[in-house]
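Incident log entry.

Two folding requests arrived from the same account within the same minute. Monitoring flagged them as a possible duplicate submission, but the sequences differ. Recording both here for audit purposes.

Request one:
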Amino acid sequence: MKNIAMNNTGVIEKVIGRHLREKRLKRGFTLAEVAEKIGLSYQQIQKYEQAISKISAGVLYRLSVLYGVSIDKFFDGLSGASFDSPVNIFDHPDNKIINLLMVEDNPGDEEITRKALKEFDNLNILCVHDGRQTMEVLRYKTLCPDFPRPDLIFLDIYIPRRDGITILKEIKRDREIQDIPVVILTNNLSTDLMATAYKNGASGYICKSFDFLKFKEDLEDCIKYWSNAVVLPSVARVG
């Protein structure tokens, strides 16, 4: 992660702004589309790209997820030698407990998923079994009120009381919870369904392999990515 001097923020903003515009254009997004997806005005996105406004760690994280790149990519081109009094703008705590909300209506699949993740001692898992329970946990806190705000959601597609895609859309429309990464776990290999999930804000799509070791490996890679490789929204949220 880049260490950045406070007295060089103008240079930092220009570099970040250039990368933001390049990555937006590469993905084919308009300013308005980006603004809608992350819950800001298009004027604000434009200000970030033009280096007029400082960008928070939380917003930068959401943009990195939207563009499918690591946060470090926004700092490419900065020379560490040109900065004095380094200040790390991201602090990723070691051994942080990851609060995982699993949405799965099949008891067998729930058991297999828990078994695949049992080696992670930093996971706090809550499993709910339908769409309505999911939103009660996320939005209203009427179900399992002691469970913390999830850091990550594993969402099955085929669940009762609103399917997974509908729940994904509801999550991404709600500004209070839209920053929570949602990873789809499903038996469906349809590329159309996969595209629909990504278009509606999914952060990943994992097919439930019939090979337990392969499924375990996929889930382990996913958890390691969200716990070690990137800054989670719970860490990056600012304001």
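Request two (distinct sequence, not a duplicate):
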Amino acid sequence: MSAQELFHRFQRRIAAVGGESHLVADPREAASFITTHAALAERDLVIPPGFATRQPWYALLPLLSEQGIRLREATNPASVADAPAGLSTAELAIAETGSVMLAENALESRVVSMLTLTHFVLVRARDLFPMLDTAGERLLQLTRPGPDQRRYISLVTGPSRTADIERTLTIGVQGPKAICVLFVENEKEIA
């Protein structure tokens, strides 16, 4: 399956559960997309602590600031709860299910993906796998004891949803009402 076919498969799967995904060329295009999204009407974006050191994603921060976005670092769950938008990064994505894998070590980083109303997720286009089985080696790398080990790993597929006993589906009760996954083809290109 080609990279383009994988992306279209992911796009269909996440759209089926109420999410959206876009393929962007570079960080500049990702920043432009984020700043024009309706979720940023208040021009406020929550980021995980230490985002400024995450290579190569830190390059997005000055681009967002240049476009008038106020970046606010998450400090605790209360500081993030019901914020209009949050930005995080995924280690990989699975085309078969339309899922992204979030892997963090700190609660302050995790709450950005759990408590903001709209969740933007950045993922390298090359980190899109056909199925979870094909991502096995990456999973081993992330869970192997050592300095790169991630303790909190979750697969996220679409916005938060829940149903009551009468099967009435509600979106965004226990998490984001919207999710937007941005696949960045050339994450190092800024020009």
